[in-house]
Give the backbone structure.
Amino acid sequence: MQEKICSKCGKAKPKSAFSVQSVGRDGMQAYCKSCRAEDHLQRKYGISAEEKMAMLALQGGGCAICGTKDPSGGRFGEWNVDHNHKTKQTRGLLCNACNLALGYLQDDPNLADIAAAYLRGYSEAF
């Protein structure tokens, strides 16, 4: 098995731990997938991988909305970091289905209330 050393963590890892990059010398990213994911968390959400795991523990190990323990279908099979798109404040970790639902409801609590009333069968939802 061929290995490559990650430029960030300095660990030798199998080439499958690196993403393909057509402009790289060896055709692979310099950072391993784990280090790239950590950089993404810090850059986009301002949290570390440790903070993400602590957040998941505070949520009982599951989705902040439905409680499932399976992120099923999330980005790279991971939990989605839910955040306020205006303030960028992190709210919690969601499974893919709940994350998509909030997105389709445009993060609008009023739309969520209307949808909930509709599902309960109340006519005043309209």
The chain has a mean pLDDT of 88.
